[in-house]
Amino acid sequence: MAAEESYPEDVKYHHEHDWMRVDGDTATVGITWYAQDALGEIVHFEPPEEGASVAAGESYGEVESVKAVSDLISPLSGEVAEVNKAVVEEPEKVNEDPYGEGWLIRIRLSDPSEADGLLDAAAYRKLLEEQ
Amino acid sequence: MKLIFEKSQKGRRAGTLPAHGVQVPEIPEELRRREPPRLPELAEPEIVRHFTALADRTFGVDTGFYPLGSCTMKHNPRVNERVVALPGFRDLHPLQEEDAAQGALELMWRLQEILAEVCGLDAVSLQPAAGSQGELTGLMLMRAYFADRGEAEKRTTVITADTAHGTNPASVTMAGFQLQKVETDARGNLDLDDLRAKVNEETAGLMLTNPSTLGLFDEHIEEVAEIFHEAGALLYYDGANLNAVCGISRPGDMGFDIVHINLHKTFSQPHGGGGPGGGPVVVRGILEPFLPVPAVVREDDGFRLDYDRPKSIGKVRGFTGPFGVFVRSYAFIRAYGPALRRMSEVAVLNANYLLARLKGPYDLPFERLCMHEFVLSARNLKRDHGVTALDVAKRLMDYGFHPPTIYFPLIVPEALMIEPTETEPKETLDAFCDAMLRIAEEAASDPKILKDAPHNRPVRRLDEVKAAKRGIVKYGFEQHPNLSGQRSEGAAVEAQKGA
Amino acid sequence: MGYLSLTDADQEAMLAEIGVASIDELFHDIPAAVRFNRELNLEPALSEPDLVAHLEELAGRNVDTGRELSFLGAGIYDHYVPAIVDAILARGEFLTAYTPYQPEMSQGILQAIFEYQTVICELTGMDVSNASGYDGTTVAADACFVAKHVTGRSRVVLAETLNPQVRQVVKTYAPGFGLEVVEVPHHGGVTDPDELRQAAKDAACVIFQQPNFFGCLEPAPDLAAAANDAEALAVAHVDPVSLGVLEAPGRYGCSIAIGEGQGAGNYQSYGGPHYGFIAARSDFIRRMPGRIVGETTDVAGERGYVLTLQTREQHIRREKATSNITTNQTLLALAGLAHLSWLGPQGLRELGETCMGLAEYAKERLGLPLLFPEQTTFKEFAVRVGRPAQEAIRAARDQGVHPGYALKRDYAGMEDALLVCVTEKRSPADIDRLAEALK
Asked: What is the CA radius of gyration of chain B?
């Protein structure tokens, strides 16, 4: 069951349609409702290795639908602390609950202040309207 | 329909072998096969019926109209099948001495001469196995050329159009180049400003299909060639659409230095359900030293294979290439002679006729005459009725036509890419247009009939998500009952989960 | 021109509908400077009977294996092609269809490919096979590309006993892949596992051939173990005809199995078109090149087949694709499926045993010194003819026998070595003739 369109207020957004929820020096990262809707049903999540370093604005993995591949862009820099293995097993969780059970990785942040440069929900919605 | 493994019964067999009465030597224990492969066990009648049933569930050009854009699904003359089966071709070993393969070598040499004339270039290698390998070979030639000039380190990027076939960028990567994309302008030509901004001393070359995958001839091709040649770069012609211009305009005259030809498209090697193909490369003289070995050359006393090419990139495939493909294509061209031009003229006429009848009810993104194919967009049907290019394609099946290529090129939303080829009669073209126009009406009046299509094929729409998730790519013997036929096929499918 | 249908009246009506006065106007967009303004310089058109006569004349100047008693092998084999193969391949639906992009139109082809994939997996002991590759050389390059991505390493190791053409093709592809190629020499006709283990250090993969180019049986399980010890992928290049009697690579530790399919179902055809196969352990399914068919159901729950895992491929992943390949060699692979179905497991074993037995008979009957007397061989073996091999070939051909392949073309120090191949189509009486011709 695909989720209803939503852009929660408690997360920050990257313009490549990725979101992150900061909790102290770690952040949880996923893709937005818009991104999963554009891709269609997700059939594969290619995760990074735990412990790998990621850089803000760079790709850390891929998600695939039947007919498309999308790079996953990390909104912030740091180290991969955890991969959501439930999504590796059942990638459709991204479609069902993109901001909840469909999260993709947790990052141990190297520079939490980078989050200041990200979009809030209102700004992200505006970006979508302009597209 | 059952799989051949589900029809198998232990102890049955079809094949018989000569009993030579020779002693079989001992195979060392650790190298000997322990479990026999579970090949099908059937007698000949059931094998023949099985494959006949599979043929019945397959649609080919012989079955009906197959306007699959960019694939050039023309009629495959049967005389070509007759000549390729001549024992002198079919049963010739590729390592036979040259004096005993003169007919084969002459045929290849003659085909090379023909392809050079059609392309307006100097030298040919028939070796590449398919268009995609021809592309890769072309890029390897670029590399070798610049290496020879001491520019290998410098020339690192290859430019492709945003309308390019996916093979172009994939080949660029496999050849070790960096990819750069250039945009298409409002008339469907390469955007010259974008191009000028991107071509520099790091550019190794351009890969271009002309006419493009939009079915449009680039009106500025001379300027394009000049931009690259002035920068010391090479131009590579993807011959996917050569069917439009044989005898009308030659890639060499357009300024291209390297061409690959899809023998299975333009020169009628049957597509065989997805191969074999043939992808000869044709080049300007400056690139000849780098062509794959062996080269087929003519000398006073006959033809021979020349391996002594010190600058050659090497071999891209075994032996001298897919010889059977050469026989068919050579025969095809000899049946036309210089009237090969008429082939391209009619291909272009047929395409423009379809375009004239179909534009309006379907959006035409570039308002121009087309070459041998054209791209429509179903975006108007999607906007007005929620009907997609996929729905149109599936509904065409109900009318007895193979659908066109859809969702390509990527720059056209809801793309329908239609290529009728020269071999279709007007009646077929009209019947296809009537069906397409009817479907456009149905999109408004009865969209559900499109959404539910096809209605009369052996299967309905298939679940591709399920296929990708389950990844069942071979038969699951473990769950297969020994006595087949007792069990419903649906149950057998479920039982294979995880196989 | 009998391949075109338009009448003058058709053409008039069509031009009128388009709104142009002539065919030339359709080419208005082609700049004048690049138009071709003369007739193509091609020989005049031939009628169908003349065309057949012309090609018969060309074919007649080739000496095929029906006209000369042939013991040539070295990668392409004169195995018997059963009549059902011709019958099946002549079906216009198979012959004239294309890649099954629209599965509802192509269930027959898709199911045939699925069955082919199953047969290749059964032969090789692997989990996943693609729909076929170009030939036995290019699948080796494909395997290197897979190994590079899987291991992140940039060196590949080839046994010198691997078919020279396969090695040449890998070397042609390697620079573009950013790969360095290392070759490991043979000792007495086979590869030394310890030497291979040394070479495999930091390598992406190791490719060896079983039976190898000399026809000898390699210590394949030891070679695979040597590769695995170095965490390089073990890749076996195998002859499908041998896999009824020789162990499947998947059962002795290989990660990938590749090979030339020609011997199963294809005529020699002067080297092609044929098919190559590539199969791997399930871990590498997402790195496989080319088409793969998968099973699914339709909206009504009926079983059906589709092209699957297409995000690997060039039309979606473009410059990041696992390969640039678009087509495969479906028609030739279908011939392989038909031939192997005709043989069945029992027939395939008998075929292997027959070839081995005949080769053994030939070794004895020829009475010539073997190049590698210690080794067990399959259907080929190398002998010393005591004079330049080309001379022996010439002399034998004067008696209507082609005795085999001159190994000096590929290996130093083998001036007098001949690689003799015996398939089930040669009889003991034929071998007696060979012995006579090599005297």
From this structure: 26
Q: Please give the angle made by the CA atoms of B477, B482 and B485, to the nearest 5 degrees.
A: 100
| pLDDT at residue B445, rounded to an integer | 98
In a 10 Å sphere around its CB, with 0-12 CB exposed, 13-18 middle and 19+ buried, how is residue C367 labelled?
exposed
Nearest CA among C372, B27, B32 for reference residue C363: C372
Q: Which residue of A has its CA nearest to B466?
A: A43
- Look at A108-112, C27-31, C120-124 and tell me which has the smallest mean pLDDT: A108-112
Length of chain B, in residues: 499
B86, pLDDT greater than 90? yes
Report the share of chain C in percent with pLDDT over 90: 96
- Are A55 and A77 contacting, i.e. CB atoms less than 8 angstroms apart? yes
DSSP state of B357: H
pLDDT category, A67, cuts 50, 70, 90?
Answer: confident
Instruction: Give the CA distances from residue A35 to residues A13, A65, A94, A103, in Å, rounded to whole numbers and listed in that order.
Output: 12, 11, 10, 13
Task: Please give the full DSSP string across B419-461, using - where no structure is assigned.
Answer: ---TT--HHHHHHHHHHHHHHHHHHHH-HHHHHT--SSSSS-S
**pLDDT tens digit string along C143-200?**
999 999 999 999 999 999 999 999 999 999 999 999 999 999 999 999 999 999 999 9
Helices B102-119 & C48-60 angle (0-180, nearest 10): 130
> Helix or strand or coil: residue C246?
strand
Q: Cis (ω within 30 of 0) for the bond into B322?
A: no
ipTM reported for the complex, 2 dp: 0.98
d(CA C371, CA C393): 17
Is B54 close to C109, i.e. CB distance below 8 A? yes
Amino acid identity, position B334: R
Q: Which residue on chain A is closest to B469 by alpha carbon? A: A43
Contact A69 C316 (CB under 8 A): yes
Chain B residues with beta carbon closer than 8 angstroms to that of C36: 120, 247-250, 253
B touches which chains (3+ CB pairs under 8 A)?
A, C
Judge whether A23 and A129 are in contact, CB under 8 Å. Answer: no
